[in-house]
Amino acid sequence: MDMNKVFFLRNEDRAPKWHVIDAADQVLGRLSTKIAGILRGKDKASYTPHTDGGDYVIVINCDKIKLTGNKWEDKMYQRYTGYRSGRKLTSARDMFKKDPTSLIMHSVKGMLPKNVLNRAVLKKLRIYAGNQHPHDAQIRGFAPSK
C-alpha cells in the first residue's frame, strides 16, 4: 500500500464477520463499548468513520448482565410521550424485568454516533436473553447441499 494515498473503504471491499459475545457476568457499560466498537469497525485496520465497515454481533445470555453499585434502583431511563407532563421514568430493574435485551440495546445505541449510519449499524446487532440463537449458519459458514 502506498503511504502517500488516502485509504477509503468501499462497500465491495467489506468482509463482515459474525462475533458471538457472552454477556453473562459482564458489566453493562464495558460490554457496550466493546460491542459498539465492533459494530463500527474500530477494531480493524481499515476503519473509515464515514462508512459501515463493522461486523455483525450476536449477544447471548443478556439476562445475566451485571450493573455496578446501586444502578439497578438508581439508574433511571426516561422517555417522553408527546403530551404535556408526559415524561415517563423507568428504573433499570423495571426495564430489565420487562425486556432483558433493552438495557444492552439502549446503551449501545447511546454509544454510536447520532447520524444515518447509526441505524445501519444497529441492524447488525442481535441480542438474545438465553444462550440459544438462530444464527448458527452465519457463524459456521453456509455449505450448500449437493
What does this structure look like?
This protein has helices spanning 28-40, 71-74, 92-98, 101-111, 116-122, 136-140, and strands at residues 18-22, 56-60, 76-80, 87-91, 125-127. The strands form two sheets. The protein has a three-stranded parallel beta sheet with strand order 1-2-5, covered by helices on one side. A two-stranded antiparallel sheet has the order 3-4. Strand 3 (76-80) and strand 4 form a beta hairpin. The N and C termini lie far apart (40 Å). It has six helices and five strands, in the order E-H-E-H-E-E-H-H-H-E-H. Helix 1 crosses helix 4 (101-111). Helices cover 32% and strands 16% of the residues. With 146 residues, the chain is of the alpha/beta class.
Features:
three-stranded parallel β-sheet, 146 residues, 32% helix, alpha/beta, single chain, 5 strands
